[in-house]
Amino acid sequence: MSNSKVSSINFFNGRQWTNVLLALNILVYIAQIATQDELLLWGAKINSLIDKGQLWRLVTSSFLHANVGHLMVNCYSLNSVGPTMEKISGPNRYLALYFASAIASSAMSYWFSEAPAVGASGAVFGLVGSLAVFVMRHRGLVGRGKEDLQHIAHVIAINMAMGLFFKGIDNWGHFGGLLGGVATSWLLGPAWKYESPSSDGRKIFSDKAPIFYLINAKKRS
């Protein structure tokens, strides 16, 4: 893919789905208040109910929040890192990263913590991990790698602090989301490799994400 083609990919300024996710989190919190937290009880990560087969809680818990402060910090964090990852990854891979991270966060919390948990921070941690993978993969192409990694550390610190001060926020979930985002990004995330110059002097790159190798290997078999 040429540089001109990369720069022309806009995806509604890189934040179409970030805006949708932000709006969804806010609307769900309003619904929580309107139902006097019945929605919270229906969708939170509660281990005993997951054991009974309510597996949807591994996803729905990431759209619920303990209080307005929890919601605001998660929206701030998602707004900080989401548009960057959406523009880097494109909408399909972005949503895959977000939901894979959310499920990994809930699963880690389920395995290591008996306490109920809610919040989008696990999914946000996954996006942070994905950005870290992208920066490390493209150290020779990304000029602001140090600044990006500092921003990543800032978002992590804010969310870890939230886990210490607010009930219902689980740092095991943060860690699970981070691991889920890193693993998913390693498999699916962009891995641009320089191929050759074009006839008009532009640099040609191709996406060498491991998922494409696996798909091609399966086709050959």
TrEMBL record:
The answer to keyword Transmembrane helix applying to this record is: yes
The molecular function terms in GO held by this entry are: serine-type endopeptidase activity
Membrane-topology annotation of the record: Multi-pass membrane protein
UniProt keyword Magnesium, yes or no:
no
Residue ranges occupied by any Peptidase S54 rhomboid domain in the UniProt entry: 52-189
- Cited InterPro entries: Peptidase_S54_rhomboid_dom, Rhomboid-like_sf, Rhomboid_protease_S54
Q: Which residues cross the membrane?
A: 94-112, 118-136
Tell me where it resides. Answer: Membrane
UniProt entry keywords in alphabetical sequence = Membrane, Transmembrane, Transmembrane helix
Q: Do you know which Pfam families this protein is assigned to?
A: Rhomboid (PF01694)
Q: What is one term from the GO cellular component aspect held by the record?
A: chloroplast membrane
Q: Which PANTHER family match?
A: RHOMBOID PROTEASE (PTHR43731), RHOMBOID-LIKE PROTEIN 10, CHLOROPLASTIC (PTHR43731:SF26)
The family this protein is said to belong to: Belongs to the peptidase S54 family.
Q: What is this protein called?
A: RHOMBOID-like protein 10 chloroplastic
Q: Which organism is it from?
A: Prunus yedoensis var. nudiflora
